[in-house]
Amino acid sequence: MNTPDTPTAEVARPSYYKRHIFFCTNQRDAGVECCAQQGAAEAFEHCKAKAKSLGLLGAGKVRVNKAGCLDRCAGGPIAVVYPEAVWYTYVDKADIDEIVTSHLAHGQVVERLLTPPHVGR
Ligand code: FES
Questions:
Q1: Which ligand 1 atom is nearest residue 35's CA?
Q2: Beta carbon of 72 within 6 Å of any ligand 1 atom
Q3: Protein residue with its CA nearest to atom 3 in ligand 1
Q4: Does ligand 1 have an atom closer than 6 angstroms to the CB of 80?
Q5: Domains of the chain by start residue, with CATH
Q6: Which residue minimizes the CA distance to atom 1 of ligand 1?
Q7: Where would I find the H helices in 18-91?
Q8: Ligand 1: nearest atom to the Cα of 34
Q9: Which of 43, 94, 84 is nearest to 64 (CA)?
Q10: Whose CB has fewer CB within 10 Å in the chain, the N or C terminal residue?
Q11: Where are the alpha helices (DSSP H) in the chain?
C-alpha cells in the first residue's frame, strides 16, 4: 500500500498529445499587471496559426491551449510546454515562431526564452 511518502511506480502510457503548450491569458481588473496586458491572447492565436500552418496540430501531435494564471506572473507573458515542463517568457511573434519550430516541432528547447527558475508570482 502506498502512503503519501511512498513513490509510485511510473507507468508508461501513451500521451494523447505529444506536446501541449499552455498560454496564460489571465486578465486582471483595474489595470493590474497580467499576461493579458502583455499580448498573451495575440501570442496564443499566433502560436495556434503557426502550428496549424506547419501541420503540427492534432492527436499524437501538438495542442495549443489558453490557461488562466499559471502563478508565474513576474515572468510574464508566460507559456509552458508539457510533457517537458519547460517555461517560457516570450516577447513577440518571432519568439512564438521559434518555440513552435524548435520546441513544438522538434523537442528542442529555446534556451534564450526560458523563464528564470525562481520567478514566481
Ligand atoms: S497572470 Fe500570467 S502567470 Fe499570472
A1: 2
A2: yes
A3: 73
A4: no
A5: 19-113 (3.40.30.10)
A6: 34
A7: 40-53
A8: 1
A9: 43
A10: N
A11: 40-53, 93-98, 105-106
